[in-house]
Amino acid sequence: MSAFHNYPSKLLEQAVREFASLPGIGNKTALRLVLHLLKQDEEDVENFGNAMIELKKNIHHCKICQNISDTERCQICSNPNRAREQVCVVENIRDVMAIEGTNQYTGLYHVLGGIISPIDGVGPGDLTIDQLEQRIKQGGTDEVILALSTTMEGDTTNFYIYKRLQSYPIRITTLARGVSIGDELEYADEITLGRSILDRTPFEVSFSGRKQDPS
């Protein structure tokens, strides 16, 4: 039997369906959100709807780092004060926000758009790894920091990227293991994440026990 069978209005049912299609939103939560919107002034609801439309129409992915931006280049890539020789590789925009919140990193980023996960049908070609390698080929990068979640999928992606980039004259480092195994970066507290960035180690140390020359 449909979960929407007892709604008194088709319009209400449709709105609940749309909210319930969002990740982490069940039917009950969706109903609460829709009923909340119904209580708001018409102007407030229009502002909400217009914000979503503008977001979809006008949001960009930075042509350099793939971060979300209002313009072709995001604020971080456009900032001349950032350490342009460092590139921190992350899974998504939430990880950029988490690392920025530590105030311990002043370099650039590269957003992969996910991690390698065969069980979910996500392979290297579905991510922005080719674009990352192209950035390294262009020169100007001294260090690539692998800052993916400490999960099996994250470690697999780290190792794949390492193999792709190991022939270039750069340092490849990873976060110190202050973030617990299996944790997502966005859920780590700022102090722990900040310390993991400052205490980052050569990738080979964390993965295979072989020390990479940090010079």
Short structural description:
This protein has 2 domains: 10-58, RecR Domain 1 (Helicase, Ruva Protein, domain 3), CATH 1.10.8; 79-207, Dna Topoisomerase Vi A Subunit, Chain: A, domain 2 (3-Layer(aba) Sandwich). Helix content is 42%, strand content 13%. The chain is built from 9 helices and 7 strands.
List the helices and strands and how they pair.
Blueprint: H1 10-20, H2 27-39, H3 42-58, E1 60-61, E2 68-69, H4 75-78, E3 83-90, H5 93-100, E4 107-111, H6 129-137, E5 143-146, H7 152-165, E6 171-174, H8 190-198, E7 201-202, H9 203-207
Parallel strand pairs: 3-4, 3-5, 5-6
Antiparallel strand pairs: 1-2, 6-7
Overall description:
With 215 residues, this protein is of the alpha/beta class. The chain folds into two domains: 10-58, Helicase, Ruva Protein, domain 3, CATH 1.10.8; 79-207, Dna Topoisomerase Vi A Subunit, Chain: A, domain 2 (3-Layer(aba) Sandwich). Helix content is 42%, strand content 13%. It is built from nine helices and seven strands, in the order αααββαβαβαβαβαβα. The chain has helices spanning 10-20, 27-39, 42-58, 75-78, 93-100, 129-137, 152-165, 190-198, 203-207; strands spanning 60-61, 68-69, 83-90, 107-111, 143-146, 171-174, 201-202. The strands form two sheets. A five-stranded mixed β-sheet has the order 4-3-5-6-7. A two-stranded antiparallel sheet has the order 1-2. Helix 1 (10-20) packs across helix 2 (27-39). The radius of gyration is 21 Å and the shape is elongated. 25% of the residues are buried.
